[in-house]
């Protein structure tokens, strides 16, 4: 396995060096044309993503008439727009690694911000755009007439996003990937051979899992069964992806180092966690709970339950909680975190030097 990985990284290095030499040999006119093309394609991508955001915002306005419309629009945009961005990235003539990372950045921006647009539009409607003095929100501090149980409505939207994400995956497997495999295997015309089997790309599939996890984090408070539903969805996803990988797909033609994208996936996961944390903290601390349902309907905010629960604890438990929140605990924790961060940074530097040395050796061997 290590020999295979060494050959794989060596091949990727050679491919990147070839593209760098090709880029260095371009004339001034060719370079200007290439950058102009990239700027134009980036504008096209921004227009596509902006159109998706506008469609999500407009679909949320009609939620009362067509309750599944926002989830359908978000799922469709998350499926169609990344495919278009992926094809556009091929025209920009970057290196394989840069092409994959650029396509992922656009897909991440689309997925996370589309979720943010949905949540922001819901917040505008539930809280009358934050204006408690509005006639629709003055009585109950939220739009009671349309959202008698706003927590349930938010949970329903997260549930519908999870459901439609699962349905679009199953529909793609049954209606696209299987028929495409059958046509390519049994038809010898030039068009089908040119299209070929679908490629199984690891990066977008990992990104889809990160997006699903972000939806679960956001909706777990409002839909407690959502994590259990997501576990079942992931199990079914595993077997569906396994079937399509071995039966319907061909090896990817664009290779890149997985090590360069591991940090990127973790960073996206952190951004998703931050987005869901902001939503949950604001909902718990600021928005008035629904009067019509829920265990918090008698409180002015969900957070009011926490001080009451702390007062009911024993003296020892309260002292322990107060100690964790004091400077006596936070300062040693901060020092320990700094030491741990310095150790990880030094370890990363050592590994980086080793990688640089191996790259130099690969270049010497290739020359």
TrEMBL record:
Superkingdom assignment: Eukaryota
Location(s) in or outside the cell: Membrane
Keywords, alphabetical: Membrane, Transmembrane, Transmembrane helix
Protein name stated in the entry: Transmembrane channel-like protein
Single GO molecular function: mechanosensitive monoatomic ion channel activity
Residues forming coiled coils: none
Main location: membrane
Residue ranges occupied by any TMC domain in the UniProt entry: 149-258
Family to which this protein belongs: Belongs to the TMC family.
CC per GO annotation: plasma membrane
TM regions (residue ranges): 35-55, 62-81, 101-123, 163-184, 215-240, 263-285, 329-350
Membrane topology: Multi-pass membrane protein
PANTHER family: TRANSMEMBRANE CHANNEL-LIKE PROTEIN 4, TRANSMEMBRANE CHANNEL-RELATED
């Amino acid at each position: 396995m290590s020999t295979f990985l060494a050959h794989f990284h060596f091949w990727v290095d050679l491919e990147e060096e070839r593209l760098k030499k090709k880029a260095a040999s371009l004339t001034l006119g060719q370079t200007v044309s290439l950058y102009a093309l990239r700027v134009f394609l980036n504008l096209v991508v921004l227009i596509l993503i902006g159109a998706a955001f506008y469609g999500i915002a407009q679909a949320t306005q009609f939620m009362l008439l067509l309750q599944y419309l926002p989830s359908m629009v978000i799922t469709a945009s998350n499926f169609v727009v990344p495919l278009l961005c992926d094809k556009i990235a091929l025209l920009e003539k970057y290196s394989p690694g840069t092409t994959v990372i650029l396509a992922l950045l656009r897909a991440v921006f689309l997925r996370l911000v589309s979720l943010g647009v949905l949540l922001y539009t819901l917040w505008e409607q539930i809280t009358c755009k934050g204006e408690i003095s509005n006639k629709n929100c003055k009585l109950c501090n939220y739009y009671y007439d349309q959202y008698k149980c706003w927590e349930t409505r938010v949970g329903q939207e997260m549930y519908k996003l999870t459901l439609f994400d699962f349905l679009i995956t199953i529909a793609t497997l049954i209606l696209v990937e299987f028929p495409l495999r059958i046509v390519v295997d049994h038809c010898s015309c030039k068009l089908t051979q040119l299209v070929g089997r679908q490629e199984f790309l690891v990066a977008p599939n990992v990104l889809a899992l990160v997006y699903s996890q972000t939806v679960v984090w956001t909706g777990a408070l409002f839909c407690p069964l959502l994590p259990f539903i997501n576990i079942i969805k992931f199990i079914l996803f595993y077997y569906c992806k396994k079937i399509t990988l071995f039966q319907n797909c061909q090896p990817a033609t664009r290779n890149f180092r997985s090590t360069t994208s591991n940090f990127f996936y973790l960073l996206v996961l952190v951004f998703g966690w931050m987005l869901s944390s902001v939503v949950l903290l604001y909902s718990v601390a600021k928005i008035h709970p629904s009067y019509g349902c829920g265990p918090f309907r008698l409180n002015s905010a969900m957070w009011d339950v926490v001080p009451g629960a702390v007062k009911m604890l024993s003296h020892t438990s309260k002292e322990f909680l107060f100690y964790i929140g004091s400077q006596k605990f936070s300062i040693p924790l901060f020092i320990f975190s700094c030491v741990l961060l310095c150790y990880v940074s030094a370890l990363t530097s050592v590994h980086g030097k080793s990688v640089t040395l191996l790259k130099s050796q690969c270049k010497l061997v290739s020359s």
